[in-house]
Amino acid sequence: MMRRAIPKLNSAARQLMSSTLIKSILIMVSGTAGAQALTIAFTPLVTRLYSPETIGELGAFVALLNVLLPLAALTLPAAIVLPRRDETAVRLMQLCLRATYALALTVFITLALFHSAIANILNFSSASGYLMLLPVAMLFAGVYQVLQQWLIRQGEFKRIARIAILQSFLVNGSKVGAGLFVPLALTLIVIQTLGQAFFVLLLSRYRPSLKLSEKARLNVGFKLLLRKFRQFPLFQMPQQALNAVSISLPVLLLSALFSPAVAGWYTLSRTIMSAPSVMLGRAVGDVYYPKLAKLQHSGKSLTATIIKGTLALLALGAVPFGIVVVWGPELFSIAFGKQWQTAGEMAQWLALWVWVMFANPPALKAVMVLHVQHWALVINMVTLTMRIGALVLGAEIYDSMLVAIAGYSLVSLLHNLLIISLAIITSRRRP
């Protein structure tokens, strides 16, 4: 029996490795893994040049940016992959870019008028001047989303991979170089913003012509697109915004309830623990998205593809995340310096949540393809409330940052399990 099974497994493995899907995944992984590997390689230098307080201020800025980013283009960039005709996809790009410009301008005007008040509300008064860079960073990040989705639609995974590696090297090298002379939070924030601008500049070389005929513009109007892809702004946007808030909350609340240094420890811990998701999980999701969309167009079931992808990622992440659970503080102290040992203690709890998050990209993409963003939104709203409660409870009742992080991590673990379950259950109910 085993003798018959082994040749079949070998044959299946060869077919799998020769498939276009696996090749595309490997290309995307090479780019994202290379870019993230460079970030990890530079991090021990960055943590020895910049203090936890400085890293915490950068983390707070990035947290605010991540909260605003889902609003930038109404999450419509994710829909660029879906239309069958390139003409419709280009029209979607035009709509996304206009929405991004409008929101960036709105944020700039709001900050100009209520700069001090907003800084006080967010307990960001020590670095309030940095807030004015938010609309600039948001503009570049929004345009980047649009251009990246177009290249994904075209299957230009190699270009995305090469550009990601180059951008990562320049940004991280600049942080180290500048840190030798000006180790300030403003230095990190400016470099982060310019790095995104450089990414946009490189990607824009491969964008399609945004000029369409008058007939094409009339046939594919903005109102028609908003109506056809209304699931994205109505459900996907609030869902992503809520998810961004829940992810960014620890940085902002830890800074407000404890200190910027605590926020800095969490920022490093979250960055390191999210590395596998950035290196592999997102690349897998970007490749699975068009694959799932094609299956849906052809009327085939998505269930097997979702389950196989999720289980494969869970198996792949079991060992590295397990090591952090056991030896987190020691590893962080050796790698980043003794002042970062507390970040390793946080990582022990974060590893449980991030392991499942690492495995959920196929499910996240399936939720969009199956148009069940409304149920995902409900999950996000419920778990967001629970996450806030866990953080406040840990801070106010137990006066312990680790209790706050533990509660937040366990609720986040539950959130990801619910999203995976939603995708599988929905795909089974549909032909």
From TrEMBL:
It comes from Idiomarina aquatica. GO terms for cellular component: plasma membrane. It comes from the Bacteria. It is a multi-pass membrane protein. Signal peptide: none annotated. The chain crosses the membrane at residues 21-46, 58-83, 95-118, 130-147, 241-266, 310-329, 349-368, 375-395, 401-425. Its main location: membrane. InterPro entries: Poly_Biosynth_Transport. The keyword Transmembrane helix applies. The lineage of its organism: Bacteria, Pseudomonadati, Pseudomonadota, Gammaproteobacteria, Alteromonadales. Keywords: Cell membrane, Membrane, Transmembrane, Transmembrane helix. This is O-antigen/teichoic acid export membrane protein. It is found in: Cell membrane.
